[in-house]
Every structure is written in structure tokens, then in C-alpha cells.
Amino acid sequence: MEKQRPSRGNGKNMDLWRGMEELTTPAAPHGQENEPAGAGGPLSEPLDRRSALKLMGASIALAGMTACGRLPQESLVPYVNRPEEVIPGRPLWFATTLDSDGYGCGVLAKSNTGRPTFLEGNPDHPASLGAMDPRLQGQVLGLYDPDRSQSVLAGGEVAPWESFTDLIRQIRPVWEARHGRGLALLTPSVSSPTLAAQIADLQKRYAEARWYSYDPIDRSAAAAGAQQVFGRPLDTHYDFSSARVILSLDSDLFAEEPGHLRYARQLAHGRRVTGGSAQDMTRLYVVESTTTITGANADHRQAVRASAVEAAARGLAARLGLSVAPGSSTVPSSWLDAVASDLRRHPGKCAVAAGYSQPPAVHALAQLINYQLGAFGTTVRHTEPINAQGAGGLSDLVAAMEAGEVAVLVMLDCNPVYDAPANLDFDRHLDRVGLRVHLGLYADETAARSHWHLPMAHALESWGDARAFDGTASLVQPLIAPLYNGSTPTELVSVLAGGGKGARGRDLVRAQWQGAHGAGSFDARWRESLAAGVVSGSAAPLVRPHPRTSAAQHLSAPAASAGGLELQLRPDPWLWDGRYANNGWLQELPRPLSKLSWGNAALIGPATAKSLGLKSGDLVALTLGDRALSAPVWVQPGEPRDTVTLNLGYGRRRAGAVGNGIGVDAYRLRTTQSHWQATGLALKREGAGPAPISTQLHDTMEGRDFVRATTVAQIRSGAQVVPPQKPTPSIYPVREVEGPAWGMVIDLSTCIGCMACVAACQNENNTPVVGPADVARSRAMHWIRVDRYYQGSPDAPRTLFQPVPCMQCEQAPCEYVCPVGATVHSQDGLNDMVYNRCIGTRFCSQNCPYKVRRFNWRDYRQAGFPPSPEVENPNVTVRGRGVMEKCTYCLQRIREAQIRAGRERRSLAEGEVQTACQRACPTRAIQFGDLHAKDSAVARAKQHPLNYVLLPELGTLPRTSYLARVTDPNPEIGT
Amino acid sequence: MSAAPGGAGARVAAVALSAPRPWPWTLAALASVVLLCAYVSSVLVLFRNGIGIFGNNIPVGWGFPIINVAWWIDVGHGALLIAAGAALAGDCWPAVSRLSESVALFAGAVGGSFAILHTGRPQYAYFLFTYPNPLDQWPQWRSPLMWDFFAIIAFLVLALIVWLVGMLPDLAVLRDRAAGHGRQIFYGILALGWRGSHRQWAAWTRARRLLAGISVPLMVTSTGVSALDFAGGISAGYHSTMTPVDAVPAAIASAAGLVLAAIVILRRTFALHDLIPVDELETLGRVLLGSALAVGFFALYEGYMTWYGANAFDRYRQSQTLTGAFAPWYWTWIALMVALPLLLAWQRFRRSPWLLGVLGMLVNIGAWLYHYLVIVTTQERGFMTSSWSGFVPTTWDWLLLSGSVGVFLSLLFLQVRLLPVLGVYALRAAAAPGRSHG
Amino acid sequence: MSQIFKPRANDISRALLITLGLLIVVTLAAVETMVLLPYVTMVGMVAKTTRAGITPEQPLPFSHKHHVSEVGLDCRYCHTSVEDSSFAGIPPSHTCMTCHSQFLSTVPMLGELRASLTENKPIHWKQVASVPGYVYFDHSIHIAKGVGCETCHGHIETMPLTRQAHAFEMEFCLDCHRDPAPHLRPRETVTQMDWQPPKNRRALGEQLMAKYGVKTAGLTSCSTCHR
User: Which of B131, B134, B181 is facing C169, going by the closest CB pair?
Assistant: First the structure.
């Protein structure tokens, strides 16, 4: 029978130490049974003889007979020599750097007896400021992915590393002789100074060798725009801390731009309502061509098709006195007038940001407008390009391949066979390359077409460095020896350059920085950089460029936007360009607005859907020129008219057991000409398919007041947002607790709905991945969910986000209905869930008005999604089949802090306990702490006039409450 | 006509001992055994794969299994009430008494099994018992589920006793008429040495009355307590003080329906028309009519109270139920459980056996729908609109539901095959002077 | 008609009835006592033995008796992290060899130990004292609040081969969590095996509770031990 499975490392840290040799082979157990859970449903689960016997055992046991046995015998495996910094049972934290969309982002990684288990933002790193996003969070699960490439493959056969290094040794004389003619290197744009320097050296060594770079999520338009305006490519980033007005031209500032975490924090700073008084807010205008959380948080949003954004930009520029040819804009001119005057009112305190998916002209216009408004140097900043780029792009490489100029192609950490634009036909041209070498985390589509595939070391296994969006450099240090004997790009390049596999990443990085810092006091500096997670003072110097006069006139005349349907491609919020496709957490995590999970869909607005006679779940054939793709439809409120948006990153063929065949591959519609959007899309209904999987099936509040919203103006006028609640009578006595009383306040004004809290919670609390079948059955397990409601017209709706963890009610309806007392109140006001007492009647969930309880319908550790016990938090029980679970306010953190305080004979300090969701939140929208500590931030927040609780009429007295959402719309614009 | 007791005894004994069984009967018996097997196998699969095989989810945490509990247990409660009523009314309805006692026990057993099967970790269900343990833990007494647990146990024990005691004299009859020593021993042991002495009859009658006296209040409360699982809940559609009360007539109606169906079939198959007079059916028909009327009244009352209570959530649910997404369920329920039984207001229909039989079954389908309305649809539209979701039953849901019917029928067939199907004692009472025959 | 049952049947039936009654009583009693026995615990419907009093087979015949009462080592010499971690710590082979490189440096009995150091492969000890996975016991806080090692681990200094002294059932923990006073001792004496409690131990315990800030209020919340 199913007894509560003790978690691997169930809080007994001695269980945790499994020794490196075991850590290196986690794949075997779950490498097999990997077909998605319930794909065929329970009916498809065969009943073999042994399980049949087990069954009989179960039935006998239920008949009340008792067998006898012993509790499982665990064994204790001490070190042979204990590293002195290790205290068994206590985690260590290391500062390191992860890749965030091509730039470095500093994180703090938690290591439990040698195993990285949790990631947190590094407060000292400019790109993080202590915040996280799901893509970063997921990388710790990626480390243990059993589908990761585990060995060198020569022609598909497992081979030793040496065989490859030997090969290179034999080839190298040829390169020496021919100056590297025929050697081509393909990488994404490089943010690592070390790698960039190495490649430069390589090119010095082999003058004829070519370096190409390709990013599926290509930001080159910005550089091109800068080129038009300044005559040289410059990187642009923003500082919103002093901004009062922000206009985004199709730029997803808070989710997709490098530095998005920092931007979100700065925006929140300008929009947080402190105290009752309502000061002016940083006002956010957004003109965008799809639904993003940036648009969802705007005071004023205009949804126009991507090709119409330029016209809006031109219109705005003209209004601001720039001499540009205006285009015919679909944005109402009154709207543009208002924005223009608002911008003009705040010279130097405003910024206009253009999105990477917009053509160079829009970026150029944005630069000019910013210059015009005196934003340069204050809110808008320029640096020399941060990332190193190859001389050519993918098209150049393909041309070279076609011309037969490429004899050896080395592809570092990229997957062009999957994500190259379809019209390049990269796959076919590969055949003309004599020797194809691929270094990657996975034996992916490209690996399959390469002669040699080399396993790459995961960032948490590697030495390296990376530069952030503002140029700040930080070091990458390993928390664990490579599980699969992987190698880093730097190490591989050093092999090419003749270093041999001997050259270790650490030495390469040290050498690089020794050069940068100079030998004197280097070690101290090195250690300091490692400890802090940033190299102090390494930010790129700001440049103060001046636009060339007449730059405006030189702007090419606006392209007359063609009619008809427009296709728009965007990276998936979580899978990004597809690199995270095999990550169960990210596949299952609902997308911020569509709440789609396990798959992408053709997003179309309600108006478009109506005119085309489509509804969610319909299967449509999308045809663009001679390329076609059939995809399910998802009707997404807020999408612009006549636009079909598809997310990239799905339809992987060799991602791994989790990601294979999930969603449709939008790259098949991508061409070099229409990189982000294409007009002239033909759409034909093919019939009804299975509806895309979404975790929220109802979009409106039905007039119920879950999210209360108001405006600065209304507050000023003294309108009452939150009517005083008179306490509801209860037959149960009110608990008078001594000691701490934990509570949480979530500020809806600053919550941007980015889902970082959900991802962090899943990492912290061992929340299982349940798989598409069960998500479709409304069985998703996330302990905190972010509800998304729409108000107003479906085509231009107002979007409201609301994170919903357990309310930790003081009069909890779940508690009094549990027949066995498995959910009870703790002294400090937590609503405890005692897994080992739960028999699974589910009455608690039935009686939970907030529906925050989650149930283990299956044994999700066996459900077919690599459970990766290595990543599990040893201080949180792994729940077995048939028990209820829910948010605990990160109980384990509370208890650990209390024990620490007790050990040190002191009382808990304010802010000493922080929940995972709170730490991850980019905007610090979540306050948590002791309500009895009168000075605590959360206690003060509870006194806030905008503070309210969900469903007060039920008298549940929730400990989790909300601050009503406040926006600051421009009175000149009628809402 | 008047059946001599002895003759009657012979006839009743014959049903169990020697009567020829027409092929439809055997076929039906086989069918129910097949369903029984379906039940057993799906229970094994359930233990292997866990309750994930059901269609339940969050928000609809309770699905078919709980509907089955509520439905079967209600039938059981109602049946025992009818049996008690019959006993108190002088034990002169041979078929009604015996069959309602059997139905009570069997339905109760089937329903009880689901109370365990629906839990996530049935192997820990013993946590519900109050036993001294090294955890220093006790059950949680504020939980209606806890009360229900004890209510069901009390009901099952009582049902078992009533059933056994009621059969004693008839078992003796079978013992005396059985051919073959083995059978004589079998029935002899069951009869507990019943000799039909005057003293035994007196004691027996007292016992019957006493048990009946206990049953009536206990069944009413027990039905109510089961309903408290919902009334005690906070959800709109659960949280109503009337739920425990209106559960009682519903229970009686479905029980009367089931018993009627059983009697009609028996009567026809074994040509017991003379032993089961139409008045007896008509009486039960009256009970059905009365309880159906009560159900109708409570439906109106519930509607009124919801409107009068002016709770936004309740009203929303009501609108969904009366005219919205759940209207089909609701109106089918009304039709089957309230409208159709009104036919019985006419004696013509009351005295038409086949109609009573069909009606009986329809009423039970209605009863099942009623529980579906309460248990599933209320949760599909809860407080948080963001959590609204649907419920899709799986193959296993359906298999276990039909399987439960199979278990019930198999038990009933066994009863008919092995045990007395009519109360001979009641035949005596019926045969007593001063009672008319139809 | 012929007699089915001889008169004896009555006596038999009575006898049967009585035995039946007795059987029920006996079985109930048996079950109750069984689940209450210190060395039996229930996992689902299955009775399993707790490891109370059980001495698992160890790779090395390590004797606490020798090292504690004869050599006189303090617990913390080997269990180094007991004061500042949830886990008391099992000594790395290196710790053992600090002595055994001099003493008994050649005896075959310790071959495995020497091998582990030379071949750098850890020794796999069997866990003796353990609580279920859903119990989160933290050594450091108990030491800090003055709970002696002996209170849970028993008189380890008398054990040639280590065994689990108590069945760590919930009531064992609750006894103390409900009323810590009679179980506490001065912090400096926690590792003393021969510590003699004063006559009025409760009085001392109450002083210590005040001194160490032991509050009983939250001690019996489920989430104090279960997460």
C-alpha cells in the first residue's frame, strides 16, 4: 500500500550526502519511464503480476489484517575528510551568475551538502537587485535534468573526450598552415569577457577563421537604430528611478528587456502608494502589438499591429517638433497629443523605449525623441555595445557554407538546426560542411546533425564570467563538479586554440581578470568578486552621444503597412527561444496573461476571432508564402486586430522527454526578411482540436470585488475604496496568540504579474510537476497562483493581477471540517497542514472559499516528469499520493530562523524571515512578517487605508491581505 | 381468497428452496454478478493508481464516489424507516417489511464502502476511530464527516440486527421445509432454535417493536447527520440549515421507489400475486407520493429561502441552477422525483404494479441527480471565479457507479435465492380476520 | 418430523456465543496493546517495529562504551555539529584517525577505517536513532535549551554496540514538549552521562526554562516538528 514516501533527504541531511559518484548518475532511475503523465490516462497503465500481488496485499491490509516489518533502515555516510566550511545539515550560499537572455544576472545559489537546490537574486547585482524571474529559477532544475547530454558523441556513438582532443590536435597543424581557413565558429552573442577575449585570440592565431554569431531572440534592430542616429552602434539602457513618464513602443520592459528586473523595481518605486496620501505616480504609456505584462500594467495602453507602431512613433516625434514624415497611425491622435504633452511636461524625467521586435526606424525615433526631451544621461543611458558579436550573422554563415568555404563548423551553445529562420534552410546547407562540432547542454536537433557532439557544463557547474545589461561583470563559479563531465565554451575554445582539455575554466577566467586587474593584489580582488558576485566598478562607462543633425530626415519613409492578417512571432515567456523546453517547471508554469500551460497557441483578439468565426481550441492552418503550420487558436483579450501572435520555443523534436512535441514550432514560419512579423498571413480553419491547456478558465470577476482598484485622482477626491469591514460574528472563540503572529500583505499597485513568485515557490517547496493531462483536469499544484482578471471591452480590456497564496485564516473553514485534525492552527497563527495525518477526504479543500488547497491525485514523483530528487529542499516534506497540501508561508524558513535565534539566545529580527515568493518578487509587492511587532513593515501595511481581505463577509479573518490597486491615468485621456 | 398460513409458508419456502427460475431471472442474476466483478476489479485498480483515476479536481474535490455514498446511504436510511413504519403499523405487509429491511442493509453496505474508497489514503482510514495510540491523537470532533462516520456505523449495526431478527421465524419455516440434512442444519443455525412457542413469539414481537421504535428517530437523525456534511460546509449550495431536514423525504422517496421495484419484479417472477396483495403496493405508492410531495415542497422552500436570504453567491448559484448551466440537471431531477410521482395521486396508477415499478426506478435516478447537483455543480461555480472549472467523470467513475449497483443486486439475488423473501409472520397477521384483500 | 438438532445443540450454541464474545474482547484488547507497545508502530494498516532496542549490524564494531566511559571522550569531539546544526554529525574518517593513526593503527578490526582514508571512500554506517521523514528534529536547539543527550539517546556510555534507546513515537516527544521542566538540565551538563538531577528537578527545570527562554506555548503546534 501507499505509505507516505519519505523524501530523498527528508530533512535528515545525513541522507542527503550521497557522494559525488551517485550524484553523477541520477539519470538512470528516471531516465526511463518518461512518457508524459496520464498521456493515455490510467486506463493505459498495465497491471503486471507483481503489482497485482501488491494489490492483493493492499486489499488484505484493508481487511484489517496486519503484517509485520521494520521501519526502513537508512544509512549515514560521513565525509572522509570534511571541508572545514561545511557544517553537516547547514546549507551554504554562493554568489554566481546565470545567463539571462544573453546577459549576465547575479544570483545567490543555495547548496545543501554539495547540491545546489535553490536560487535567489543577488541584491548586489545591478540586473537582479535580489529579484528573480522564472527563467532564472528554472535553471536549477535544468542542472539535474536527466535528459542532459551525458557524454561525447562521435557520429552518434559514445566516445571519450580524448578522442575529440586528439582529433583537434591532428587538425591544428592544417589550421596553422592555412591560417585557419575553413574554420568557422558559431555562437550566440557573447557576454563573457573571457570567452570574447579567447575568440579574439583564436582569430589572431588563425587569421582566416571566421566567427559568426546568431541569436534567435535578436536585438540587432536597436543597434541598427543607434547606427542611424549616432553613426555607430550603441547599447541603450534606462534608469527609471527618476522617471515620471514612460512610453513603451512595443517594448516588454518588465519581462523581456535586459535589465527587466531592475526596471520593474524602479517602476514599482514610482508607483507604490505609501501612507494614505496619493502622490503622483510614474505614469506608464504602452503602444504594443501583443499582450505583455508591461502593457497590462500601463495606465494607458494602445494595442496596434506591429507594423503600425512606427506610425505612432512618427506621429509622436512630429508632435514633439521633430521633422519626420508622419505615417498614418491607428492610434487616436488625441491619445498621441496627450502623451506628447505629458512627455513635454517632464523633460529629463521621461523615457521612450522601443522594443527589439520593432524595425531600426522605431529605435531611431525613440532615440531622437529621448534626445529631444533631454532624457540622455538621466533616464536614458548609452554604452558601447556590451556583448561581443561575430563578424557575420547566420545568413553570412549559410552563404559561406553554400560557397563551400566552411570545412569545420564549431557551434557553441546554440541550436541553429532548430531555431534558424526557415528560409535559410540551414539544415540542408550543413551537409556541405566537412566537420560539424556541437557543444551544448542537450544532444539536441543540432547535435543530431553534427559529427561531434560535446556535452556542455551547466552554469552551476562552470567557471566563467558574464556582463550585465549595463556592462557590470560578474563571475560564474561552480557549486558542483560537472555531473556529466561537461565542458565550458571557454574550455572548448582553448582546445581549438591548442590549449588541450587540460586548460581548466578557472585558470582561463583568472588569467583573463589577472590581465584586467593587473597582478597586484589580484587574489584579494578575485576573492572579493567571488564573494560579492559582482566585479566592483566594472560597469561600462556611459557615453553621451549626440544625434547627427538631419538624422530625422534620413529616416526611410514609412512603409505603407499592407492590409490583411499579420503574423507576429515572440519568444515564449518561459521557454524563451526554446532552450528551456525540457524544463518541467517552465512548461507547466502558466503564461502571465493567457495562463496557458504545456503548449503554445495562435493568439488572436476577440474581434479578429469574431470576424474569422474562430473560437479557442479551433485548429487553424497558418500559411505564409510557401510555408504552412497548423496551430490551435487561443482567443486572447487585448490582442490587436488582424494580428496572429505565436510564441517561439515549442515543437521541439529533440529537447528531451519533457519538451518533445509540446506545442507547435513557430520557427517554421520565420524568415530572415520577416524576423519578428510578417504581413499577408493566410489563415484557414481546419476543425476543432483539443483546447489549449489553461489554468484559469474564467476571466472576469462576475462583479465580485476580489481586486479592488482605484486611481490617484479618486483617492484625492476622498472616495472610499475599501469600506470599513465590521467583524463578522463567529461561534468559535477568537485566538489570543502570544509570540509572533505571521501575516502577509500583497500590494496590487506594484504586482506586475510576472509569475516569479510562483516559480520561486515551486523551487522552495518541492511542488511537483503534474503534467499536461492533469493540468487540463484542473489539478495544477502551484501553492501560490496569480489570478488574472479582465475588465471592460475584451479588445481593450483592463488587466488585473492578484497573487493568491493560502490566506492562513484565523477562523479557517478548512480546519473544523477535517475529521482527523490533519489541518490545525499553530500557535503563531499558521494554518498547519500535517501531511502524515491526512487521509485525503478533501473536505478541507471543499470548504476552502479561496480554493488554495492542492491535492496529490497521483504519486507525482512517479508521474513521468523527471522528479529530480536532487533539487528538492531537504527541509520540506515530499508529499505522497493521496494527501492535501498548500502554502505554508514557507514554514521551514520560519522555523529555521526561530531555531537560529533560539540558538543565539535572541529574538527574531524584523525581516529575518522572508518567504520565497517575497524574496523573488522584482517589485517587492509582497510584505511578510510578524503582525505583533508593531514596527514591522507588514504591521504598518495592515494599517494602510487601502488594506483589504478577500471575501470578508465569510468571517474567515485571513492573515493574507491586499492593498487595493492604484493607477494614475492621464485625465486628458478619456478611459 | 385467503392463503392458509401453512400454504403461505410453503409458497415462501419454495421461492428459496425449489421454485423454478425463468431464464430472464437467471440472466439478470448473471448480469449483476458481472457488474459485481467490475466493482471488485476497479477497486483493485483504485488501490493501485490512487484516486487520480477519478474525474475529481480542485475545485470539484468530491465527485462520483461521494455521490454514491450519499445516494446509497440515503436509500438505506429511507428503507429502514419504511421497515420500522411497517413494523409499528402491525407487521402486516410481508413483502414491504422483508424487502425494505434487506434493501436497508445492502444499500447501507454498498454506500459505506464508498466512504472509505473515496479517501486519498484508505489504509489510514482507521484514524477516524477513537483508539488509544502512541500519537496521543484523537479524531477532530467538530467535523461533520466525523459525525457522519459514526452515524453510518450506527445505521449499519441497527440495519443488520433488524434484518436478522425479522427473519428468525421464517428461517425456522425454511428449516422445517428444507429437504436434506445440510440445508436443515444451515437454516437451523440461522434460526437460532426458533420453535414458535408462544413465549418466543411474544418476546420476538416485543423485540420487533422495540427495534422499530429505536429505528425511527435514529434514522431521521442519521439521515440529517449525513446531510450535515454539506450543511456544515461554507460553500453556497451546501450551507443551508434545511439540508438535513429535506434529506429525509428524499431518502424515503428513493427507498420506497427501490423497494417497490423489487417487490413488483418478485411478485411477477414468482407469481406471488395472492401473497402480495395490490393494497400492499398501493400503500407503498402512497408513501412514495407523500415523500415526493415533501421533496417538492422543500425544493420550493429552498428556492424561496435563497431569494429571501439575498446572499449574492447563493443567488448566483440559484440562477445557474434554475435557468443557467445546470438547469438540465435540476429540471430532470424535479421531473423524476417530484412531477412523475404525482401520477400516484390517482388510484388507477397507484394500483398498477408495472407503473409503480418503473416509477420506483426513475425516482432513484432522480435522487442520484439531486446529489450530483449538490455535490458537483455547487463546486464548479465557487466563490473565486478564477477557480471555476468543470467536472468530467472518467471510465472508472462510471465503472464504480455501475459496479455498486451490481454489488447491491447480487446481494438481493442471494437473499431471494437463499433466504425467505416474505415475512410469513406478516402473512399470518395479514391473514388475521378483519383485513380485506385486493 | 425428525429431530434436526440434538438437545446438546443448545449447550454448543451457548458455548459458541460466549467464546465469540470473548474472542471480540480479546482481539480488541490485543490490537490496543499492540499499537501501544513501545516497539510497534502503525504504518497504514500494517504494524511495523520501531527500532527501539535494536542494534543494527555496523561496518565497524564501534563501541560508545569504550570511547565514552573508558576513553572519556566528550560527545562533541566526534559529533561536532550538534550545537549548531540540525544534524549532530558523524565523524569523518579523518577524525577517527587522529587517534587511530597512533593507537591500534594496525589491528585488522580497523582495516576498513584505514582503507576509507587511504582509498578516500566513506564508511557507510547504519543509522541507529532515527525519526520518520516527516519529523524535523533539530539537535542544536535542544542542546541550546538544555536537553541532555542522554534524555533521548539513553545511557550510550553503557552500550558496547549502539542501539536506539527509546521508540521515538510522538508521545515520547510530546511528554517533554508539553511539560519540559522535569526534562531539562543546565546547558553545560548536556553531554554528561553521569549527571545526577537534584531532588527537586522540576524547580531546577523551571529556573532553566526562564533562563533559556523555553516557552511551552508553541511547543505543541504540529508545525513545530512537522513541515
Answer: B134
- Residues of A with CB below 8 A from B384's CB? 706, 787, 804, 849-851, 950
Distance separating alpha carbons of residues A852 and A369, to the nearest angstrom: 47
Give residue B135's region: left, alpha or beta (phi > 0; psi -120 to 50).
Answer: alpha
Buried b (16+ CB within 10 A) or exposed e, A349-378: bbbbbbbbbbbbbbbbbbbbbbbbbebbeb
Chain C contact for B181 (CB, 8 A cutoff)? yes
Instruction: For chain A, give every domain's residue range.
Output: 235-272+280-383, 565-688, 697-714+741-967
- Structurally, what CATH architecture does the domain formed by A565-688 represent? Beta Barrel (2.40)
The pTM (predicted TM-score) of the whole model is 0.91
Give the three cell numbers for residue A476: 560564474
- Domain B5-430, CATH among 1.20.1630.10, 2.60.120.40, 2.40.30.60, 3.40.50.2000: 1.20.1630.10
With a cut of 50, say whether residue A20 has pLDDT above it.
no
Chain A interface disruption, residue of B387, B396, B398, most A CBs within 10 A:
B387
pLDDT band at A65 (very low <50, low <70, confident <90, very high): very low
What's the gap in Å between the CA of B49 and the closest CA on chain A? 7
Identify the burial level of A207 via C-beta atoms within 10 angstroms of its C-beta, where 0-12 means exposed, 13-18 middle and 19 or more buried.
Answer: exposed
d(CA A600, CA A594) in angstroms, rounded, equals: 10
CA atoms within 13 A on the CB side of C109: 10
Q: Exposed (0-12), middle (13-18) or buried (19+): which is B422, by Cβ within 10 Å? A: buried
For the sheet containing A947-948, what is the strand order? A926-930, A742-747, A960-963, A947-948
Query: How many CA within 13 A on the CB side of residue C70?
Result: 8
CATH architecture for segment(s) A235-272+280-383: 3-Layer(aba) Sandwich (3.40)
Q: Sorting pLDDT into bands at 50, 70 and 90, what band is A870?
A: confident
Query: Are residues A81 and C94, on separate chains, in Cβ contact within 8 Å?
Result: yes
Q: Are strands C40-43 and C46-49 parallel, antiparallel or unpaired?
A: antiparallel
Q: Rounded CA gap, A804 and A785, in Å?
A: 5
- Angle made by CA atoms A756, A302, A219, in degrees to the nearest 5: 60
Q: pLDDT tens-digit profile of B384-434?
A: 999 999 999 999 999 999 999 999 999 999 998 899 988 887 777 666 544
Confidence at residue C227, expressed as pLDDT on a 0 to 100 scale: 87
Q: Which CATH architecture has domain A697-714+741-967?
A: 2-Layer Sandwich (3.30)
Q: In sequence order, which residues have a C-beta less than 8 Å from that of residue B346 and are 6 or more positions away?
A: none
- DSSP line for A767-783: PPP-HHHHHHTT----S
Taking the Cβ of residue B193 and every Cβ of chain C, the question of whether any pair is shorter than 8 Å is answered with: yes
Contacts of A955 (CB under 8 A, 6+ apart): A727, A728, A729, A730, A811
Q: What is the DSSP letter of B141?
A: T
Rounded CA-CA distance A536/A964 in Å is 40
Of A328, A231, A145, A233, the residue nearest A769 (C-alpha): A145
Residue whose C-alpha is closest to residue A577's, from A445, A729, A751:
A445
- Beta partners for A96? A107
Contact B289, B341 (CB under 8 A): yes
Q: Does residue A756 or residue A47 have the better pLDDT?
A: A756
* Contact present, C9 and B194 (Cβ < 8 Å): no
Angle between helices A309-319 and A333-345 (to 10 degrees): 50
User: HSE of A195 in the Cβ direction (CA atoms, 13 Å)?
Assistant: 29
ipTM beyond cut 0.90: yes
Mean pLDDT of all residues belonging to chain A: 88
Among A357, A273, A401, residue whose Cα is nearest residue A710: A273
Structure letter (DSSP) for residue C102: T
